[in-house]
Amino acid sequence: IDNSEARFYAIDGSYNSEQFYNGLSIAIYAAGYICFHRGKQLRMNDLDDPVILGQAYYPENILISNQEHLFAMYDELLEIYPVKRLIEFWEDSPENIFAYERDKICINLSTLLSFCQEILEYALILEIIELKDTQPGDFILRDGTLRSLQIKQSYLIKLGKYAHEKSVRVIAITKQSPI
């Protein structure tokens, strides 16, 4: 990749939570991406920081003490710009796009955090495709599979076709895959 004209973007995310003795939890998910071009990491954000060059997204609502806070975290995810843009791109409602209803996703903290991370990572695929500097022949590497249990297949196919039309290659990097 050091001598290639292609850009190599890498998407990754994570989540974590901690429950305290009184039932209060702190929970966070995050996802972001970095980019390398001709052997150098490129700045993907507008921060004035010499170390943090990647672009990352995470929620503001991280305090969970009841079920309503889970719903607030879900609703906030849908308002984070890349996710909002992805839903607009798919031209449908979350109820139709996602495999499970909001109530099922918010059944517990772990399920919600895993969902949020995965949806945000898929949203970043679209964000990268639409970046002004992304060119035909560039690569997007996603940690995980390209088959989601959270998003209905027809929507992933639409995203894949869009990447193909733009000649951007989306590649899954995974330790284990049934495929």
How would you sum up the major sheet? Answer: 7 strands, mixed
DSSP summary, beta strand count: 7
Taking the alpha carbons of the first and last residues, their distance comes to: 26 Å
Question: Would you identify the regions where 5 or more consecutive residues have pLDDT less than 50?
Answer: none
Q: What's the order of the H and E elements?
A: EEEEEHHHHHEHE
Radius of gyration: 17 Å
Overall mean pLDDT: 93
Number of helices: 6
Helix share bin: 25-40%
What does this entry look like structurally?
The chain is an alpha/beta fold and 179 residues long. Strands 1, 2, 3, 4, 5, 6 and 7 form a seven-stranded mixed sheet that branches. Strand 2 and strand 3 form a beta hairpin. Helix 1 runs parallel beside helix 5 and helix 2 packs across helix 5. It is globular, with a radius of gyration of 17 Å.
Question: How would you briefly describe this protein structure?
Answer:
The chain is α/β, with parallel strands linked by helices. The chain has helices at residues 67-79, 81-90, 94-97, 102-105, 109-129, 153-165; strands spanning 7-19, 25-37, 40-42, 55-57, 63-64, 139-143, 169-173. It starts with 6 loop residues before the first strand and ends in a 6-residue tail after the last strand.
Using brief descriptors, characterize the structure shown.
179 residues, alpha/beta, seven-stranded mixed beta sheet, 7 strands, 36% helix
